[in-house]
Specification:
The chain has two domains: 2-211, Glutamine Phosphoribosylpyrophosphate, subunit 1, domain 1; 218-248. With 252 residues, the chain is of the alpha+beta class. It is 35% helix and 23% strand. The strands form two sheets. The protein has a six-stranded antiparallel beta sheet with strand order 7-8-1-2-9-10. A four-stranded antiparallel beta sheet has the order 3-4-5-6. Helix 4 packs antiparallel against helix 5 (140-153) and helix 5 (140-153) runs antiparallel to helix 6 (189-212). The chain is elongated. The chain is built from seven helices and ten strands.
């Protein structure tokens, strides 16, 4: 029902994930990341608390095997779950619950781990890891996106339409470089995510600058002018003295 991949950029310390499923809102439930520390996937009858615990353990410096062992020991329902962990050094560990009733698999590659359940075939995760490795040298987000598409094209889920998908990449200063989610799609959630990713790529650097150094980003002259006009239309100049203080902003 879900296929996913977590990956690491050894140069930047970034961790990321790409995931899709025929259920809704997969990005909020199944993925946890910590920049420089690791990534956790918790899927199949998902309990998001397992991901929360896993990422806390990675932040404490635990390795992938330790994290999986402790996550599995934390719940009586672990036989229903599928868990994947990639730690700070790129080591991977997985758990497949005994009550999973479908084709499931995982493939650990160089700085990545692909994981899936209720799959069309047992080659899906291998195709994902191969696509990730073949895109070495590309940005982490691009590698993850290519891997997700490879999983879909290799068969993906055994049945059902892909309704949600997500792409996440951690960043410095506690701000993710990418946190893109298609929570419900009328078509192919992976294709929708690709379009969102392509559009966001053009904005990612600016949005990071807005967050970290907002004074460096000029105000849109068109938005400023529209705001001043609306304030005047409503007679709110005393409350919002924007026009007479226009020199406070750099515009373009």
């Amino acid at each position: 029902m879900t296929f996913s991949i977590i990956g690491r950029c050894a140069q930047t310390g970034a961790f990321g994930a790409a995931i899709t499923t025929s259920d809704l809102a997969v990005g909020s439930r199944c993925v946890r990341l910590a920049h420089g520390k690791g990534a956790v996937l918790s899927q199949h009858r998902t309990d998001s608390r397992l991901g929360d615990l896993g990422i806390a353990l990675l932040k404490d410096g635990k390795d992938a095997n330790d994290v999986v062992a402790k996550v599995c020991a934390s719940t009586e329902h672990i036989d229903w779950r599928q868990v994947g962990v990639l730690d700070a050094t790129g080591r991977a560990a997985v758990y497949h619950g005994r009550r999973m009733y479908s084709i499931y698999s995982h493939t650990a590659g160089q700085d990545c781990l692909a994981l899936g359940n209720i799959l069309d075939n047992d080659n899906v995760t291998a195709a994902m890891a191969a696509a990730f490795e073949q895109a070495a040298g590309s940005p982490l987000a691009a590698r993850l996106m290519a891997a997700l598409e490879a999983g879909r094209d290799a068969g993906g889920e055994v049945a059902g339409r892909l309704q949600s998908a997500a792409l996440r990449v951690s960043g410095e200063h506690g701000i993710d470089a990418y946190d893109l989610r298609v929570d419900i799609s009328d078509g192919d959630a992976v294709a929708d995510l690709r379009r969102l990713y392509a559009a966001y790529q053009e904005r990612e650097a600016r949005l990071r600058t807005v967050a970290l150094t907002p004074d460096q980003v000029p105000v849109s002259r068109a938005l400023f002018t529209a705001s001043v006009q609306r304030i005047a239309d409503l007679g709110l100049e005393a409350r919002f003295p924007v026009a007479r203080n226009a020199d406070n902003w750099t515009m373009q």
